[in-house]
Each structure stands twice: as C-alpha cells, then as structure tokens.
Amino acid sequence: MFDSLRDKLQSVQEGISASFRGLAVGEIPQTVRIPEKHAVNLNAGGEILQHYQKKWNELHAIAEENAKKAQDVDDYIISLDADVAKKLTNIESFNAQLLRMPQVVDGVHSLIRNIGTLQNSIDKVEKLLIQLEDIVETQHLQEEQLEKRFELAMYREKKLADLDSFRSNLSVEHAVKLSQHEKRLSAEQKEKQATYAEAFKNDLEHYKKFGSIPHEKTIQSNSAEAPCLSLEEVVLDDNQDSEALDELLKDSELE
Predict the structure, then answer these.
(1) What domain of life does the native source organism fall in (predicted)?
(2) Which residues have C-beta within 8 Å of that of residue 241, sequence separation ≥ 6?
(3) Measured distance CA(73)–CA(247) in Å, rounded
(4) What is the pLDDT of residue 98?
(5) Three-state SS across the chain?
(6) CB contact set of 242 (below 8 Å; sequence gap of 6+)
(7) Is the pTM higher than 0.85?
C-alpha cells in the first residue's frame, strides 16, 4: 500500500519537474510562435517559477520525509505482523493445550492413583523389611545361643576332664596318705605291742621270782611311756609271748 503511494508521489513529482523544465528560461515551446518583429521578455514569470520551484522543493522534502516515515511504518507493520503471527501461534498452541487439558487431567488423576498404589506398596515393603529385620535379629540371637551353648558344652567337658583329673590326683593322694597313715598306725601298734610285750615279760619274770605281779609299778612305769589301752586293743603276735603266757597259766594251775 505504501509502495503504491510512494510510486504515485514520485510520478507526480516527475510530472511537476517536467512542467517546470518546460517553463525554464531559454526554452521555447514548439507550439508557440514568437513574432520576429516584437522582442520577448525572458524574465517574465521568473517569480512565479521561483515560487513554484520553492514549493516543489518543499513538496520534494515532504515527499522524502513521508517516504521515510512510510518505510518506518512499513517496518513497524512488518514487525507488528511478525509479533501478531507469533502471538497467534502461541494462542493456537495454547488452544491446542487447552483442548488436551482433559487428557492431562486424566493423566494427573491416573498419576495420583499410581502414587497411592506406590505408597501402599512402600508401606508393605517397610512392614516386610521390619519383619525381615526381626527374623535376622532372631536368627542372630539363635546363632549366638548355639555358640554360647557350644562354648558352655566345651567348658563343661573341660571342667569335667579337670574334675576327673582332680579326682584321680585326689584319689592317688588319698591312697598315698592312707598308706602312710596305715604304715604309721602299724608302726605305732607294733611299738605299743613291743612295749606291752616287754612289760608282760617283766611281769612274768617278776611273778616267777616273787610269786606276785607288781600292778601299780607296772602301771605307773608304763603310764609315762605309753598311753592307756583297753584289753581289746592288745594284740599278741609274738610266739614268745604266747609261750610265756602258757607257762604262766600252767604255773597258776599247779599252785
């Protein structure tokens, strides 16, 4: 539109320029014939020509300014058209998105349901993990119990072995001490028997010589040397003592 206006202004400008050139000084129209007898004033119409030329220059400047403004307006219209086209494209895209909004809403609802299902699955997995931790802890405790029982059994076996060894050692020690005690008792008994045999022999000799037994002297002399014994504790193993006793009994029967 502005291009056609600019073309029209340019054609008008060219027409005015051509008419002014036709009126310039020194130009003689072909259709006008000047009589040879009369002189022609060449400066006639100069002011009018100058006036129109000035107006033409003003119109030319205005036309150029209008052409520049028209170019600016054209550029602005092109930019505005591109902006409008871009906004139109955005609006069409927005309308398309609005048309797809029900699908988006359905997708959001489906996503919410999936999130709920996932939350339930997570809760189940957490419960199963807690149960698994309890099972693992129970298994660990059972393993520790088995290990402690095994250690206790090994400790019991060790202590039983130590007890058997201690019993064996104690039995051996007891047997040794018992043997030593029996030997000591046997030695003491033999010593006592020897003492009483000697005392009996002395009493028998005294009886043979004097016909009586020194009971008090024998008891007093023996009480300092040996402890008192009962008759059941006296054991006569020597054959000589037996023969002396038999002779004593025979002598008492003869009397």
Answers:
(1) Eukaryota
(2) 197, 200, 201
(3) 180
(4) 85
(5) CHHHHHHHHHHHHHHHHHHHHHCCCCCCCCCCCCCCCCCCCCCCCHHHHHHHHHHHHHHHHHHHHHHHHHHHHHHHHHHHHHHHHHHHHHHHHHHHHHHCHHHHHHHHHHHHHHHHHHHHHHHHHHHHHHHHHHHHHHHHHHHHHHHHHHHHHHHHHHHHHHHHHHHHHHHHHHHHHHHHHHHHHHHHHHHHHHHHHHHHHHHHHHHHHHCCCCHHHHHHHHHHHCCCCCHHHCCCCCHHHHHHHHHHHHHHHHC
(6) 236
(7) no
**What type of residue sits at position 149?**
R
Distance (Å, rounded) from C-alpha 25 to C-alpha 48?
12
Look at the chain and count its residues. 255
> CB under 8 Å to 140, separation ≥6 — which residues?
none
Neighbours of 236 (CB within 10 A): 14
Q: Give, to the nearest 10 degrees, the angle between helix 101-210 and helix 46-99.
A: 40
**How many CA atoms within 13 Å lie on the side-chain side of 171?**
6
Residue 160 has pLDDT above 80, yes or no: yes
Integer Cα distance of 193 and 206 in angstroms: 19
